[in-house]
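Colleagues,

Please find the record for the two-part complex below.
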Amino acid sequence: MRWEDVTGLALESLRLHRMRTGLTVLAVAIGATAVLLLTTLGDAAKGYVVNQFASVGTNLVMISPGRTETAGLGAAISGSTRNLTIDDCEAILRRSPSVKRVAPFSLGSAAITCGGRSRDVFVIGTTSSYQEIRSLGLAAGSFLPPGDPRRGERVAVIGFKLKRELFGSENALGKAIRIAEAQFRVIGLLEPKGQTMGMDFDDVAIIPVATALRIFNQSSLFRISVQARDAASIPLAVEEARGVLIDRHREEDFTVITQDAMLKSFRSIIDALTVALAAIAAISLAVAGIGIMNVMLVSVSERVPEIGLLKALGARPRQITALFLAEAVLLSGVGAIAGLGAGYILATIAARMFPALPLIPSVMWMGIVMALSISLGAIFGLIPARRAAGLAPADALRGRR
Amino acid sequence: MIQGEAASPATEAGHSTANPELIRLERVSRLYKMGESEVRALDEVSLHIHNGDFVALMGPSGSGKSTLLNVIGLLDTPTSGAYFLDNQAVQGLSENSLAEVRQKKIGFIFQAYHLVPRMTAARNVELPLILAGLDPSERRVRLRAALDSVGLGARMSHRPDQLSGGERQRVAIARAMVMRPQVLLADEPTGNLDSRTGEEIVALLGRLNASGLTILLVTHDPRVASHAGRLLTMCDGRLMSDAPPAEGAP
């Protein structure tokens, strides 16, 4: 029997019961849509996180004071944690060949006033290297000037939203603002960038690190950002920076974490979540498979005399199996195509509504849904098809099973 | 016993009085279990049918006519005894081989026609050709010829519910003939038809027989049986008589 004929005969039979066929196809379609949407969502979440990490900068290594792993007895014996200082930053840059840039980073919160207006924002203390490390773009003016990081100039680079709130549409460059009761001159405006990794660069003021430590009365940096020369030299940069700091502190009283490591753990968490979501959605596909089996069993019992006739006309058991299996696979295949189409449209609509999320259904997941649906049709269609093929011809012709 | 001389294969030496044997049953029995008791639907039936025979089979309900027809048509397997079709022993053949023999050598028609209701007349007749895996161009030629031979060329795109009983049975005959079988097994083909239409169908069967087809016809109607060259009667699973039919009603 030619496969076109198998398909043709199966379609003729399915077309006879439009309602039944339609509902079964719908059940598969809903399952396929659910799997596709949830996996698309998972992939989008991963893409979002990856984008966030990329926007932080490339080949980054973060060093924070304190050893998170050794809290408790060990930490108590080794005494207090040493501060991370500007000297540490300079030593790392000087003594680590794999390190391209180093930026100290301090963080405080202060009211910024200008004229009658005031706004509470985060204030970052850093150096000129920070611009390249975090790939910050400027809308106007210049970033913090290079030079000795211990010199505490009274200059500030402010975020897009902060500028708008304080100055409206007026020019802000060269104007004076007060940060924590000290006077600063605005020298640059950041481009709109939005939230990256929990830091809103639109609503922030960036000032020289020495000034920041002084006005916030801090002795330690919040963090040191180290940029490796390239992706391949990240592990080397980590080792070099760690060596320098251990040499200076006499113990490892700090924590080094790479952007890659953070990204990897986020990725694996989200991948696991995506697979779990897909598995839950796949339950609805399995239920649809049971629906297919039910419909096919009904179809077989309705068509007992027809099966007897096919046998009288010389149909082999395999051919009868193939005919009924083709119906089941058509139901699941058409359902999967419809479901994938609907899922694609819904994802596209959702992508319009949430532009921050990269909601693009992946070809891989579409392939998986398609393969899953078709094998589901084949598996759940097999029992009814085998039952049809196994009927005794003489009895079947009389409508007896 | 010999019906017509046309289209029968060359007669073997020493068998000058008969065409080659097509069907041979030797002490064939068929037992059914009905709960605790056993029913002997066929009780040691022995029978020879030759190529080109037109045999009618009569008997009361439950006498085993249909079982005999099913056994001969390979739709049912005997409990004991031997069956040779076209000199080939068929007991012990696999499901697939049985299906192949049915496909190539046997045509069926039924009282209830057994047309597939969702298919047109043409599609119904095409069904055996599809199952045989013939390609569409070959199918069209054979289909057309089969429908024309039963006088239904013009009604080929009608569905069974748009056809009269006589037309439906003609479609069924076309379907049975389209694979060019050696024997046509007809299970009360006129049972659902009025007598005039029934006569037409029997006349059509007579013409097919005249062109060399072997026919075994189960019927309740003596007038239908009178068209056959040979009349078998059954009772309680046994062959009671085997003779040319009496002219007129017995």
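Chain A touches chain B through 26 residues (CB under 8 Å).

Comments are welcome before we finalize the supplementary table.
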